[in-house]
Amino acid sequence: MQAAVALGERGRGRTAPNPSVGCVIVNQGRLVGRGWTQAGGRPHGEAMALDQAGREARGATVYVTLEPCAHPSERGPACADLLAQAGVARVVIALGDPDPRTDGRGIARLRAAGVAVETGCGAALAEPSLAGFLTRVRLGRPFVTLKLAMSLDGKIALPSGESRWITGEDARAHVHGERARSDMILVGRGTYEADRPGLDVRLPGLEDWSPRRAILTRGNGVEGWARLGSPDEVFALEDVNDLLVEGGSGAASAFLQADLVDRMLIYRAPILIGEGRSSIGYVGLTSIAEAHRRWRMSDSRMLGIDRLEVYERDRHSPPPPTEANIGRGDARGT
To answer: SUPFAM superfamilies from the entry (predicted)?
Structure first.
């Protein structure tokens, strides 16, 4: 399943609104087929892997990151039907598909055809890779990642607005990798006016993976860019699974205040700026208690001289501490 998840990552940023699914087929201990959803959403990962496996798919075990689709499409047959017709013996699925057109139907169809089905294997691995698709189906909007590059004291620019470059080359290369896995990248009007950013992917071999660009503004848009008048308009982005918000402070604050950020990438450079422009502004909090238990760190690593910290929005944690529960053993005042 780990190999299937890695394959699924290859299609991220190029398959929306379809998910990028990874698939591995094994027969008698040998890898006979592998696939991932191709650009534009077709063929699906299972179809690609079955085509590669050919006759060796019969009696094989299939590892797939998402429940095989069960609904008909003008663009191709349902993957559950393809797997059954190929005569596979067993299908191991990481995650069920929340799309109501499939949601359990793919599993049921495979079992009805005599295929053994196991679910939940590698779910924790597959969830982050498919987060964009899952969020769009469940919540009706893209999975939103906010990127912030800042100094140790939380500044993103000098008072003059100069911000190039706060972080080093390794951190910037990592950002370009994140861009390549996104369907759309957004900046605010202020960042656009100050920097005229290209927002492209400048990694060798991945130049064609540059995402669509968007600007957050209540004013006029930019030719060739999508325009969002407010963060809530992400709910209208039906063909975007992963949205990367790159700045600046106004856009970051607006998305945080709307509670529409699912993941934060904080690139922290080992420098002090002092007086300068803060990374974010007002985010709607009225007390320190509200700020607690919203975010959990999921990763931290060095990128050259800079440190990357990754935080996930925790929407299932207990309520934050209040004056009513401080001292009862479930909260502290520090």
So the answer is: Cytidine deaminase-like (SSF53927), Dihydrofolate reductase-like (SSF53597)
* pLDDT, tens digit, 9 for 90 and up, residues 36-95: 999 999 999 999 999 999 999 999 999 999 999 998 777 778 999 999 999 999 999 999
* CATH match of 142-313 with 3.30.980.10: no
Q: Contact, 50 vs 33, CB < 8 A?
A: yes
Q: Which CATH architecture group holds 1-134?
A: 3-Layer(aba) Sandwich (3.40)
Domains of the chain by residue range: 1-134, 142-313
pLDDT band (50, 70, 90) for residue 165: confident
Binding site residue list for substrate = 163, 179, 202, 246
Residue 315 corresponds to which tokens in the numbers above? 């929407």
Omega of the bond leading into 209 within 30 degrees of 0 (cis)? no
Which residues are known binding-site members for NADP(+)? 149, 165, 191, 195, 199, 248-254
Instruction: Establish whether domains 1-134 and 142-313 are of one fold.
Output: no
Q: Under a CB-based contact definition with an 8 Å cutoff, are residues 35 and 23 in contact?
A: yes
Please state the residue numbers annotated as binding site.
44, 69, 79, 149, 163, 165, 179, 191, 195, 199, 202, 246, 248-254
The pLDDT assigned to 276 comes to: 72
Supply the DSSP symbol for 83: H
Sign for the CA dihedral angle at 67, 68, 69, 74 comes to positive
Residues known to be catalytic: 46
Task: Quick: pLDDT tens for 34-53.
Answer: 999 999 999 999 999 999 99
